[in-house]
Amino acid sequence: MRRAAVAATTTTTRMAAEEMRRASASTATAEMPASPAPAQAGSRWARVWPRALRWIPTSTDRIIAAEKRLLTIVKTGYVQERVNIGSAPPGSKVRWFRSASDEPRFINTVTFDSKENAPTLVMVHGYGASQGFFFRNFDALASRFRVIAIDQLGWGGSSRPDFTCKSTEETEAWFIDSFEEWRKAKNLSNFILLGHSFGGYVAAKYALKHPEHVQQLILVGPAGFSSETEHSSEWLTKFRATWKGMLMNRLWESNFTPQRVIRGLGPWGPGLVQRYTSARFGTSSTGELLTDEESALMTDYMYHTLAAKASGELCLKYIFSFGAFARKPLLQWLASYTYLIMYNCSLIVIMHNYNN
């Protein structure tokens, strides 16, 4: 009996051990996450990779975060959204959505609180900029208008598709058609359209193509008004004949943009941007334009918008020739419109749509 009891005890012990082993294995299997697919693993690694070790320490999320920090200076409340403009604008001359996939594109948009029935003012930024560059203007304008500011396609916090344009016509369509898809998505019409610098060029071209939607057109310091032949420069002609001029012209025609320099510097890029913003905008310590806080926030925001993926910036050589002269000047199209106003050394052109 003792042997039987020992045998029974041994058998019971073995069975219990086996059950514990199975339970342990089952628990381990349940707790172990599924192995990610190769692409997912790469994506996860990219997310956890220390930001300090990335060659270009930026991303769309960091652009939006920098934008929010900059807009804390603005007292007027606002709503930020990424407006879906789809992936294929009908009738466009250029498939600006072309890339590895036809995923939807988005236009980063901020809309500021306004009085009821206030007229709508849409603001379009210039080359190498984004809507946050208007931060000093938002409060004053929002007191009279329903202000909507956007990042153009390929800039700021908007989508940055591969730039596939190969001509001036295609490049203009890239911006005009994406803006029109944004307007449709926002269900806007009869609005005031304001464009600064290159944004003025885009705004004017849009108004010429879709005048039924634009109540007034305001161009602040617009680029692209005249051609090189209308502004013959003896200095530029002589400079082009030098080896430096030939090199600069070659870089221009190869689409070597200023943003490429920022990316090439990697983690040293923010330092260069800081020196640039200090030189251009100054700080309160030098008695110039920006306060120390504004300068720091602007530098951070500007770096992230410049260092992100190259996209809209590659329009440069198709819209302008070397020397920033328009290949298709606006004066050829806007000569019949009336109001020309000088304000603070910037040219403001107001085009009234007499059909409204």
TrEMBL record:
Spans through the membrane: 330-350
Principal location listed in the UniProt entry: cytoplasm
Any one of the GO CC terms: cytoplasm
Chemical reaction(s) catalysed: a 1-acyl-sn-glycero-3-phosphate + an acyl-CoA = a 1,2-diacyl-sn-glycero-3-phosphate + CoA
Family the entry assigns: Belongs to the peptidase S33 family. ABHD4/ABHD5 subfamily.
Compartmental location: Cytoplasm
One of the GO BP terms on file: phospholipid biosynthetic process
Ranges of residues in domain AB hydrolase-1: 119-249
Location of region: Disordered: 1-41
Gene3D superfamilies per record: alpha/beta hydrolase
Protein name per its UniProtKB record: 1-acylglycerol-3-phosphate O-acyltransferase
